[in-house]
Amino acid sequence: MKSEIEKSLITLLKGVQHFDNEVFVEHKELFEKLASSQSPSTLFITCSDSRINPSMITQTEPGELFIVRNVGNIVPPYGEMLGGVSSAIEYAVLALKVQHVVVCGHSNCGAMNALCDLSSPKFDTMPTVRRWLRNAEAARATLGPLEAKDMGPETVRELAEQNVLLQLAHLRTHPAVVGALSRGELALQGWFYEIGTGQIVILDEQTRKTRSVDEALAELHAEA
Ligand SMILES: [Zn+2]
């Protein structure tokens, strides 16, 4: 009898085997081209949530997105927590010279739910999560006093959107970002991804309103 751990490991390894034998072979030329360098256009910051597949939702190939993922798609303000996120931002902007930074939040985000419940004893055993989510505390404040019982899908969505806007503001505290923005070499964008419908909307930092991808493309006079 195989244990659940063994079964899930087998699934994982079979996936790798399929990649090696089929998928890699199909895309061999792309991987050979990418073997010696990368030149991604976009730094994509999103939640670790297993239901988000950045390459699938943007229909990009390996080499196009430089990806940072963490609980709650958070960017700690510069100097607060110098670590993985700040290093990735600095490297993406200064060394890889990405042209875009996208912060992408999502529906049904566990981190957003947790934000309204951080003082609960259930987080006593997760001090790191509790501390990390403090970086999103100001997003919660924009929605007024909230408790765990208020967290329906609409509130989670609103909080996730406010969190994206907050993390965009945090991005602007990073010297590499400020420098590239002032030289006109970088653009920031906030997205919200609805898992159940596959819809992505773009959040406007100035108006704090959302617009559809179709609207954004029309503004850019992009061909359909
Ligand atoms: Zn999430």
Write structural notes for this entry.
The protein has 224 residues and is an alpha/beta fold. It has two domains: 1-31; 39-219, Beta-carbonic Anhydrase, Chain A, CATH 3.40.1050. It has ten helices and six strands, in the order H-H-E-H-E-H-E-H-H-H-H-H-E-E-E-H. A six-stranded mixed sheet has the order 2-1-3-4-5-6. Helix 4 runs parallel beside helix 9. It is globular and about 55 Å long. The site of zinc ion has 7 residues, from helix 5.
Strand content: 5-15%
**Would you count the extended β strands for me?**
6
Number of helices: 10
**What name does the CATH topology of the largest domain carry?**
Beta-carbonic Anhydrase, Chain A
Strand pairing plus helix content: what structural class? alpha/beta
Q: Give me the Rg, rounded.
A: 19 Å
Q: Walk across the major sheet and give the strand order.
A: 2-1-3-4-5-6
Bound molecules: zinc ion
Major beta sheet summary: 6 strands, mixed
Round the mean pLDDT to the nearest integer and report it: 94
Low-confidence stretches: none
Name given to the CATH architecture of the largest domain: 3-Layer(aba) Sandwich
Give the overall silhouette: globular
Enzyme class: lyase
Function: Reversible hydration of carbon dioxide.
Family: Belongs to the beta-class carbonic anhydrase family.
GO molecular function: carbonate dehydratase activity; zinc ion binding
